[in-house]
Amino acid sequence: MELLVVLVIGLSCLLLLSVWRQNSGRGKLPPGPTALPIIGNSLQIDFKNFSKSLTKFSNIYGPVFTIYLGMNPTVVLYGYEAVKEALINFGEKFSGRSNSATLEKINKGFGIVFCNGESWKEMRSFSLMTLRNMGIGKRSIEECVQEEACCLVEELRKINGSSCDPTFILECASCNVMSSIIFQNQFDYKDQSFLTLMEKLNEFIMILSSPWMQICNNFPALLDYLPGSHNTVVKNAIYIKSYIFEKVKEHQESLDVDNPRDFIDYFLIKIDEEKHNPQSKYNYESLVATIYDLFTAGTHTTSTTLRYALLLLMKYPHVTVKVKEEIDCVVGRHRIPCMQDRRNMPYTDAVLHEIQRHIDLCPTGLPRAVTSDIKFRNYLIPKGTTVLVSLTSVLYDDKEFPNPEVFDPGHFLDESGNFKKSNYFMPFSTGKRICLGENLARMMLFLILTTILQNFNLKSVVDPKDLDTTPVVNGLVSVPPKYQLHFIPV
Description:
Elements: H1 2-26, H2 50-61, E1 64-69, E2 72-78, H3 80-89, E3 96-97, H4 101-107, H5 117-134, H6 141-157, E4 163-164, H7 167-183, H8 192-208, H9 211-218, H10 229-254, H11 263-273, H12 284-315, H13 317-330, H14 346-359, E5 368-369, E6 374-376, E7 379-381, E8 386-390, H15 391-395, H16 438-455, E9 456-460, E10 473-474, E11 478-479, E12 485-489
Parallel strand pairs: 2-8
Antiparallel strand pairs: 1-2, 3-5, 4-12, 5-8, 6-7, 9-12, 10-11
Organism: Castor canadensis (American beaver)
């Protein structure tokens, strides 16, 4: 009986607290749908297609509105003008990262992706500088990507034109590029430790993008007590970080400060340089967390985009024909593509941009937070408030991209067939939190895709018109449906 009374009192207090928090902020925050105590607007949101729900709210409440994901308010920026004003004009104020209950357990405030303040600025600056440094030297990043693209072609030749699901082999290629940069290590596609690592990573991303994880992160108090796939996310992350830590230990034993081999070496040298600085942000925990962020984000996003690319190129064979003609004209058959070729391949460039626009890989990017109280469009957004950016609303703006639902490389071509830039092209987000690996991702997409098309024709196992490009998961990341194809050697 006493336990029942305690539970009733506790629940009542939660309800009162929830109502008070929502009402106290409503007069200052942007408008939005009425939220229920504790669960907020969760019943009004389709977590299987979060972007569609945001569009419905925007049609009612405008380009800046508030929703409650659980008990906490989330300000949503919808449309190019609102996104640009917030992330560019007020970039510093909107540069915080909102906590994700699950990912906070993994990195504990270290790394780049879910780090804040001076630690984030320091790790981001160091990582950008290091990646630039690694682009110059005996073996540049471009050469790493070219080498892996050639390895991928050889693996595809072994299939002998049989039908296959390209998911695994594309993930291997992306993972190997990141491994070369971070670990100076490339794996054989049949290496068992490599296969296990890929399995853990793929499962990790799939669960993170599921509706269940979106719900779990809105009710962090329950994560420690509920069974479910969120526990698998943490276990897989621990496995990946343990793998990284073993690589760090190997690097410590063979480090040559005068001849850094990869990202780990550069970071270890920086740790040693800063060892007498009590305020230093460089330590082994931040090293493992930073590598974890680079490795997981860089591997999956690129491989997923490549999977989408092949699917779209099969569905629209007339586009593929034009890309292959441009490859033959500019690159030919006797050398591998290089990044300098891209400037002479406007149609291919437009196709790559249209693929990224059309697939809308990260519909809302990663959740942000305002770093201090800010008055924005006559609303007062308190420090720490979560902010979601609808990248979908920018990439699918019908004024900038007529018929945005249609896959059309013409969205990025002028009347003369020259490549046409667009400020609305934000698949990597924008502002101070723009994706750290944007340049690397663009390089990988161009070099790997053009090398595949240089060596193979793509043949669908079904009529191209029957290919479905609708994502099977549309949460943190949009995941394409499974499909089969033939790689027919040219």
